[in-house]
What does this fold into?
Amino acid sequence: MTNPTPRNGITSPLHWANAPPPAARPSGKTWELIDLRHLSAVRHQARSFLAGSARNAGASADRQQDAVERAVTALDELASNALRHGRPPTSVELFDNEHSWLIVAVDTATTRLPVPATGRPEGQGGYGMYLIADFALAHGTHVTGDRKRVWAQLPKG
It folds into this structure.
């Protein structure tokens, strides 16, 4: 597998910028993450939230569905990475902005920043960060105090 280059102009898909997430509307959802088994319920609830939000975006039904599935995939990747590589307490937040969704995974492993896989054979995992980078309008990581936020902003359509 070759290392894909994100469409959003970031020069290296291996680098997630050290930047705070964009401003978000206060409307959103937050899920405390307990373990990987809990993610199924989080995905289901997030999909419902996103589908309702996408209907207001004005895109065709097919584009709305694709956007929702990309956002659920990104949320799942960020949440599962926080659980696997972060430190509790962990959570994932989903915000509904006018033309985009903001997904933020939060944990307390402030010295463990995301590193996309390189040189790993297909099938051994680790390529979720590339998917998110490709889907996202912007993405990054930001540490403040004892919290690390890994975030992605995805288009609604």
Observations:
- Helices lie at 39-54, 61-85, 128-135.
- The chain has three helices and five strands.
- The chain has one domain: 28-155.
- The CA atoms of residues 106 and 149 lie 5 Å apart.
